[in-house]
Design brief:
single chain; 163 residues; alpha+beta; Aminopeptidase; 28% helix; binds coenzyme A; Acyl_CoA_acyltransferase; acyltransferase; N-acetyltransferase domain-containing protein; Ard1-like
Length: 163
């Protein structure tokens, strides 16, 4: 059985471990600590109750300014992954919905943004088809290996006219 809960400080190292198994985009422990200290209410983990292992997580934060310099409170998904052994069980969907709820209700975010590789079929299926994200922009050579990224957004509040 897997439980979805808010991350605690002692989970950060396990989230980093999960990230290292799942993604080429990795971060220093200091970066996890920053998220944990400032945005703890937005961090969620999927914990395998039997083993106590963290099998998935979402690392997220809030931002006030967008790429165009417009002041618009919004959330941002820094990283999301689920261990191979626990995929296709709805865990990513659940941790994402939990952080979305907090961005919307606690921080009154207008929208949430993220970057995703254009070739990441699984993540695109989740973001676009399941969670209702739309492509806002394509960023050329965004990743270290030169792959392009979709910059995606999901709106919680009415989209301003010019967006
Ligand atoms: C992307 C990822 C987080 C999805 O995690 P998950 O827990 O398996 O996803 P869920 O079970 O919640 O799936 C929700 C939806 O996502 C889509 N999806 C998930 N895996 C998919 C796949 N392999 N192919 C196509 N669509 C997929 C489906 O729409 C699915 O809904 P459905 O089960 O009703 O069909 C996981 O594959 C992963 O960790 N990948 C490596 C890291 C990564 O790419 N992170 C995202 C970086 S932007």
């Amino acid at each position: 059985m897997v439980s979805i809960r808010r991350a605690e400080m002692q989970d950060l190292q396990h989230m980093q471990h999960c990230n290292l198994w799942c993604l080429p985009e990795n971060y220093t422990y200091k970066y996890y600590l920053y998220h944990g200290m400032v945005w703890q209410s937005l961090l969620y983990v999927a914990e395998d109750i039997n083993s106590g292992r963290i099998v998935g997580y979402v690392l997220a934060k809030q931002d006030e300014e967008d790429e165009e310099g417009t002041k618009l409170e919004h959330g941002h998904i820094t990283s999301l992954s689920v261990l191979r052994t626990h995929r296709k069980l709805g865990l990513a969907n659940k941790v994402m919905q939990s952080t979305h709820r907090d961005m919307d209700k606690i921080f009154e975010s207008h929208y949430v943004s993220l970057h995703v590789r254009v070739s990441n079929r699984a993540a695109l299926g989740l973001y676009r088809d399941k969670l209702g994200y739309e492509t806002f922009d394509t960023e050329e050579k965004y990743y270290a290996d030169d792959e392009n990224a979709y910059n995606m957004r999901k709106w919680f509040r009415k989209k301003p006219e010019k967006q």
